[in-house]
């Protein structure tokens, strides 16, 4: 039973979604390139045939097959490009595109190989196409093996129906099938292992980066993580700079450990409202929040909600209310300099708000 399970896992492996996404993009890139070259080659063959025999040009089965392959190649290249650009997506759709591509190429190459067999030539076209597909496209071994066996049976049947396959050396044909099936399995797992290893290495690097970019006290991103923010031209940013009112008084009256508790509480309430990747401990009791996912009104509502939550939270042994203040700035960002200018604008707004509030309290 264990042997069966291992064999089944070998022929029908299950990948994580993230691995499937990488495989899908790789397959679409390969199909785009292969379809483009197929289109060029078959278009050249058809044009050459027309130039040589234009006086006696007529549409036969070979011409029809060639035109179908040319049109299908264009369609496959277009679908692959749309998938790569993210206009269409989904693992099932990717599998459907791959299977359609393989079927079109295999049928055409079977027909070409059969014609070569009837003409007494080598039937290597199908062999070359199959090797190309195995080398550049990653298909689950079991499904691919079934297709290859059906393809082999159909071609042999056509040759038997034609002349009893008298020019076919069966042992060679069987050896070819065994080699191709073995390559199908080995090449799939070789590529899959490389993709998984690369993905896991990337995940470890990202985990290390997150840990090095994370503030240990609050769990927020630290100030240095700002350097890694990707800015798309024309992105609209909502930015808020905030701090805890009279934070020095908490440290002086209750001690630094209680001061740390105040910071942890305020940051914890902030992380309940915003994504972790949008929240930064800018320094001391200062928090920076920036996002491209919200409108200005929605952003302000969330900041007000945070302010209210902090005021409603009590910390043991601290008998004075805890308040936060924030300054907002919204604008279109095209560069890091634009973002820094927007942060400064929010910081200036925070300073103005706190100054006005302190004047009223005095």
Characterise the protein shown here:
With 362 residues, the protein is an alpha+beta fold. The chain has 2 domains: 2-209; 221-361, Alpha-Beta Plaits, CATH 3.30.70.270. The chain is 68% helix and 9% strand. The chain is built from 11 helices and 5 strands; from the N terminus they run αααααααββααββαβα. It has helices at residues 2-11, 17-52, 61-85, 91-118, 124-136, 141-163, 170-212, 247-254, 256-271, 296-312, 336-361, and strands at residues 221-222, 235-244, 279-283, 286-291, 324-333. It has a 5-stranded mixed β-sheet with strand order 1-3-4-2-5, with helices on both faces. Strand 3 and strand 4 (286-291) form a beta hairpin. Helix 5 (124-136) packs parallel to helix 7 and helix 9 (256-271) runs antiparallel to helix 10. The longest helix has 43 residues, at 170-212. It is elongated and about 105 Å long. The chain starts with a helix and ends with a helix. The model has no long low-confidence stretch (mean pLDDT 90).
